[in-house]
Amino acid sequence: MKWQVFIGHFVFVASVLFTGVVVIGFKLLRQYQRRRSPLHGKQIGHVPGQQLLDRIEKASEGVGYGVDVMTLALPLLFLVWATLRIDWTNVRFGVAELIFVAGWLIFFGYGFWQYQRHAKQREQARDGLLAERVTGMQLNRLVAQGCVVLHDLPSEVGNIDHVVVSPQAVFAIETKSFRKPKGDGENHRVRFDGRALHFPDFTNVEAVPQAERGAQWLARFLREKLGSDFPVIPALSLPGWYIERTEQAKASPVRVFTPMGRGADFMAYPTERIDANQRALIAQSLALRYPEIKE
């Protein structure tokens, strides 16, 4: 048996190896260059639903693998069957073959672009989910101090990540997760000047206005529903960051904080501007924003 009969097998194995080398190389490069999650190394514990999400992700990967096997089984076996019937001694490399190689490179490049794009989106989504859950867990501790805490409140400007109804005010909270550069010390600090967040190597100007829009809608909603003006304070949660506030930030209506430790306790200060009956009415009005699941 001549070695040419294994050319089809060689093409398949070479494709698998080449793809593996490219993917591993990309991961190593990302590992070398990548920024760290702001919650890297923190003792977070089990966030609600995390084990179920891990099981869902693992099962989803298994489902995708099964579909891939079913889809590729016939083409791969047909490829083996066909290559065994080709007389490779008569095959010559020419223009047609060059076109096929160029087509393979185009498809491979497109696939790699899709892979790295979605890998980055998945990483960002995971960071955001963890940040929201950590913030929610820390805010839930305020219930022991007489606060009402709601999560993912539907609104006309998009869901508000968290709402805390406390004796002093109603807080409309947005949670953001920004990765840290490698290193320690100054790389873990963000400066808030009242309008923008200045990180070690970039500036974000979108997060603060987003928190303000949520608070403005919430204040308007409560005024229309209850006929009174309540103090509504926009807040921005940045888990894992050390926050420095400038003099301008102290005059800003937006409170930027980290929920870690006792970072959210300022919401439960005993100054009472909203009495218990009003807090109950506010909580009831907000609870009705959630969709009812009918039997």
From TrEMBL:
PROSITE patterns: NERD. The chain crosses the membrane at residues 6-29, 62-81, 93-113. It comes from the Bacteria. It holds the Pfam family NERD. Residues 127-245 form the NERD domain. The keyword Transmembrane helix applies. Signal peptide: none annotated. Keywords: Membrane, Transmembrane, Transmembrane helix. This is NERD domain-containing protein.
